[in-house]
Amino acid sequence: MQKVLEVFPGAQRAxxxxxxxxxxxxxxxxxxxxxxxxxxxxxxxxVAEVLEQIRQSHDEDARVLIEPSDLAKLRGKEADVRLVDIxxxxxxxxxxxxxxxxxxxxxxxxxxxSWNNDQSFVIVDHLGGKCLxxxxxxxxxxxxxxxxxxxxxxxxxxxxxxxxxRYTLN
Length: 170
Description:
The protein has about 170 residues and is an alpha/beta fold. The chain is about 50% helix and about 10% strand. It has 2 domains: about 1-65, no CATH class; about 65-160, Rhodanese-like domain (Oxidized Rhodanese, domain 1), CATH 3.40.250.10.
């Protein structure tokens, strides 16, 4: 599975979404397991079908990602594009993209309860690793115009706004 995840970083999300595999300890998998082994112990799933599901999900992920340069252009054209930052409060308070909002429980309720489902917004994280999960959550709740910033705030700092301090987490 480790090799599958290297080629298709969103494979765990794809397996969970379609087959409920990998979301908890009882249905999780180990990095040293094979895809065929995971399929076998989860109801003899056809490996080719599961692999195709992972490939399709990978293509869908690519459509959700937005490059920092494309986001900068979009923000210049469309003033109503919102940025939702899913990093910790400490990270958000240390550095943030101008105009972004930190995702809190209140903001999550506002997004799901009162935002127009067609509202354009972009999920921002630190390095781009978690924003696709968050975007998939909102897409699953009927919000088709959510995107995920490729590379997170780190890529934004490198490519768009060098005044945003880069950092690492221990």
